[in-house]
Amino acid sequence: MRPPHLLLAVLVAAVWGVNFTVVEIGLDHFPPLLFSALRFLAAALPAVFLVGRPKVAWKWIVAVGLVLGVAKFGLVFVGMDQGMPAGLSSLVLQIQAVFTAVIAAAVLGERPSRVQALGMLVALAGIGVAALDEGASGPLGAFMMVVGAAAAWGLSNVLTRKASPPDALNFMVWVSTVPVLPLLGLSLLTEGPAEDLAALRALDWQGTGTILFVAWVSTVFGFGAWGWLLRRHPASTVAPFSLLVPVFGMSSAALFLGESVTPLRWCAAALLVGGVALTTLTPARRGRTRTPDVVATGGGPEFVGRPPARTEESVG
């Protein structure tokens, strides 16, 4: 992976880390499912009228929209609302790298090398140390919701890789249109129209700011850049960068929310960074050669599997 791509991956991790603090603040203003619906509505409008027509088959847009938007973010927001603190959430969610590697091996034939597997273990050991330091501060149900969100994120990583969108921003904007109505419907059913209406009537500059950050910075930029990286590199190479998210998540939570950062927590962060280094400096092993899937689109057949050629940067 070239240095500019490395820097972009780290920047996305920083945005997603700070995003946990922003979400925690936003949950003081909105019910969780309504908040998630508003973030995708803001991400989709008015951008959907500016990016042009979708450039991949609708089945990929709908699939990623439901898995990433409804399942992953719905579970994270509800879990945090029910007691999972921002720092602990940013740690637990990073087991998505393991889900990504397992699913990518099964679906895409991207098998991690021994060094990469060791890096994963080191990084996950860091997550375990940090989680132990944090303690079981939230209810078990909220904890399991974030674990489920991690599984959904891993699946969405592989779906994005499989879709291979030629324009990551176009893809993410159209994906953002999918979760809005399902999340609004779930919010009305579980949170109630009275609570939703009260939150909208009390909207202030801070609440608006949290929506704009999670919509434009975390969603459009973050997942647009993430999808761009996934198109150019194996999922098992890109995914470990998300293990940097807790470093930024813990730092921002300590700075803005007053969450403590102990020496043991910094030790965990060092393990995470070391694990990321091991997994990214060694190329993944390729499985059997796979023929890209071909789907019918409005403009004719389109390849939606992995890119047909590999550049020097992806070979390593």
How would you spell out the order of helices and strands?
HHHHHEHHHHHHHHHEEEH
Rg over CA atoms:
19 Å
Distance, first to last CA: 7 Å
**Percent of sequence in beta strands:** under 5%
Adjacency order of strands in the biggest sheet: 1-2
Secondary structure class reads mainly alpha
Dominant shape: globular
Q: What does this protein structure show overall?
A:
The protein has helices at 3-26, 32-44, 58-81, 86-92, 96-107, 114-134, 140-163, 168-177, 180-190, 193-201, 205-232, 235-238, 245-257, 263-280, 312-315, and strands at residues 110-111, 285-286, 294-297, 300-303. It is mainly alpha-helical and 316 residues long. Helix 2 runs antiparallel to helix 3, helix 2 (32-44) crosses helix 11 and helix 4 (86-92) packs antiparallel against helix 13 (245-257). A hairpin with a 2-residue loop joins strand 3 (294-297) and strand 4 (300-303).
